[in-house]
């Protein structure tokens, strides 16, 4: 199994794609939930008579948003990746002169010299077909009689692409789901959330951003501090804009 996964990874590089999707979407998930938390936090700040709110009011919107991001990430990524792989397969089949039945029937109706031209157009490296060769070996295109075999038999490349598609799609949906759940964890342990509960949640997001910055720095072999500052910038900008807008 491990050997097969290594082969699939060599063909599709799914580990690199999945890692990139995980970092980006985990980060997106946290910032999305950060906006929800800031809305409730500012409500408490600008209403002194209200010192806390029920945690369930924070948990439900956060979980609902996280689940939506999960479904959107999985389905959107799967459909788009599948479409891209189908396009690549069609182009590869065309380059290898693998024709469908309707294309074969159309070519069979053409004169022999037209058939040769169509084959040469479809090939990556056109070849010259001499008259003597045509007489001895007339070009005939036949339908494949074993359609069941064609549908059941899959190349290692097709299996690798299908596995990569499923894995990347799952990662693309799971990352924002986790990114949305992590900031909500403090609210699961308290019935009424006050300002300190929100502050702990904000610190949780900040710590996760620091770890993501370290991870990106290790991957890119660049300055870890630089990556942390770049990722923290979006966090700070989100806080500032939310404070300014919700203050009005």
Can you give a write-up of this model?
With 248 residues, this protein is mostly helical. It has a domain at 2-77 and 159-247. The protein is 77% helix and 2% strand. It has helices at residues 2-12, 14-45, 55-95, 101-108, 112-122, 131-136, 147-152, 156-181, 195-220, 224-247, and strands at residues 53-54, 192-193. It has a two-stranded antiparallel ribbon with strand order 1-2. Helix 1 (2-12) crosses helix 8 (156-181), helix 2 packs parallel to helix 8 and helix 2 (14-45) packs parallel to helix 10. The radius of gyration is 28 Å and the shape is elongated. The protein starts with a helix and ends with a helix.
Quick take:
The chain has 248 residues and is mostly helical. The longest helix is centred in the first third of the chain and has 41 residues.
Q: What's the end-to-end separation, in Å?
A: 58 Å
Largest β sheet strand count, sense and barrel closure: 2 strands, antiparallel
- Please work out how many helical segments DSSP would assign: 10
Strands in their spatial order, largest beta sheet? 1-2
What Rg, in angstroms, do the CA atoms define? 28 Å
**Quantity of strands, as a count:** 2
Return the string of H and E elements.
HHEHHHHHHEHH
Task: Estimate the strand proportion.
Answer: under 5%
Structural class, from secondary structure content? mainly alpha
**How much helical structure, as a percent, in the residues?**
over 70%
Mean pLDDT: 78
What coarse outline follows from CA principal-axis ratios?
elongated
């Amino acid at each position: 199994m491990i050997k097969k996964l290594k082969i699939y990874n060599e063909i599709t590089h799914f580990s690199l794609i999945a890692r990139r999707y995980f970092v980006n979407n985990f980060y997106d998930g946290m910032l999305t939930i950060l906006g929800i938390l800031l809305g409730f936090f500012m409500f408490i700040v600008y209403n002194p008579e209200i010192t806390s709110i029920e945690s369930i009011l924070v948990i439900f919107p956060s979980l609902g948003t996280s689940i939506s991001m999960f479904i959107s990430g999985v389905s959107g990524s799967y459909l788009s990746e599948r479409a891209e792989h189908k396009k690549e397969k069609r182009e590869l089949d065309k380059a290898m002169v693998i024709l469908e039945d309707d294309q074969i029937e159309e070519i069979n109706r053409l004169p022999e010299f037209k058939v040769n031209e169509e084959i040469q157009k479809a090939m990556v490296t056109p070849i010259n077909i001499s008259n003597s060769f045509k007489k001895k070996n007339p070009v005939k295109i036949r339908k494949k009689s074993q359609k069941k075999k064609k549908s059941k038999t899959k190349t290692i490349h097709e299996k690798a692409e299908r596995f990569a598609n499923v894995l990347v799609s799952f990662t693309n949906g799971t990352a924002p789901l986790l990114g949305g759940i992590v900031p909500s964890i403090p609210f699961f342990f308290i019935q009424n959330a006050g300002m300190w509960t929100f502050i702990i949640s904000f610190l949780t997001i900040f710590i996760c951003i620091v770890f993501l910055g370290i991870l990106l720095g290790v991957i890119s072999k660049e300055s870890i501090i630089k990556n942390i500052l770049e990722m923290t910038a979006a966090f700070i900008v989100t806080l500032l804009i939310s404070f300014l807008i919700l203050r009005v």
